[in-house]
Amino acid sequence: MPAADPALESQDVRKTFGHFTALAGVTLRVARGEFVALFGRNGAGKTTFLKVAATLSRPSSGKIFIEGIDILKDPGQARRRIGFLSHNASVYRDLSPLENLKFFCRLYGVSDAEDRIMALLDRVGLRRRAGDPVRSLSRGLHQRVGIARVFVHNPTLILLDEPYTGLDAQAAVMLNEVLDEAVQNGKTVVLTTHDIEQGLRAATQAAVMDRGTLVFAGAAGDPAVRDAYAHYIRSGTAP
Fold it and tell me: Cβ contacts of residue 16 below 8 Å, gap of 6+?
């Protein structure tokens, strides 16, 4: 696979649910190693776009490539490169954090599972609760299990949908550190959030969605990011 292939490339991606259009033609190119903050109001299409990119929802039309892999032609290979975290941490509540991570290691064929699991549990601050059922954990600790699950198979593209939801200040700092380390190690991060300061904290690129379309995409340091945020999100109207 050519090294020049972007981490994620969407080409006129559309998604409809009956008469409702969730994505109205999204074209976005994310280079490897970028940290992209994706902003938008509720209903703007952010979550739908990430789910399509993560192969969890099929686009109505258009194409998405993950590191050059067409997700419609080879979704299995694409998934091995993706770590996805949604509002739901997507872990089994009756299993412990340790059991959950062991299950996902088997699912992805992780060879050094034991060492990797314990390192991840340490990293997210869950070693002491590793044997407790997830259902007994707080919302914040539940989310920490989800964060560990995202990284268990060492993905190269990290897709996060509002990952700070339910996290306390200490856990938010931990997540920031984990994401910074991931980018330093050459991974790509695409993160959605309503909080512009949190989103731009370490982002290299930014994008704004409104009504299923991409209304801005550019460098995170471009003042136009905040202008687009103010027009499409804060005020809820187009400029």
Answer: 22, 60
90 dihedral zone (left: phi>0; alpha: psi -120 to 50; beta): left
Confidence at residue 1, expressed as pLDDT on a 0 to 100 scale: 42
Strand partners, 69: 66
Of residues 214 and 237, the one with the higher pLDDT is: 214
On the question of pLDDT at 2 being above 70, the answer is no
Q: What is the mean pLDDT of the chain?
A: 93
Dihedral angle, C-alpha 151, 144, 22, 41, nearest 10 °: -130
Give yes or no for a contact between 45 and 209, defined as CB atoms under 8 angstroms apart. Answer: yes
Q: Are 160 and 136 in contact (CB under 8 A)?
A: no
Question: How far apart (Å, rounded) are the C-alpha atoms in residues 72 and 117?
Answer: 31
With a cut of 70, say whether residue 238 has pLDDT above it: no
Distance CA 42, CA 211 (A): 10
Q: How many CB atoms are located within 10 Å of the residue 109 CB?
A: 9
- Of the pLDDT bands very low, low, confident and very high (cuts 50, 70, 90), residue 165 is confident
Nearest of 147, 162, 156 to residue 51 by alpha carbon: 162
Structural domain count of the chain: 2
For range 73-86, the mean pLDDT:
95
Cα separation, 172 vs 133, in Å, equals 22
Give 20's pLDDT tier (boundaries 50, 70, 90): very high
**Same domain as 121, residue 164:** no
Residue 224, domain CATH: 3.40.50.300
The pair of three-digit structure tokens given for residue 22, joined into one six-digit string: 């969730």
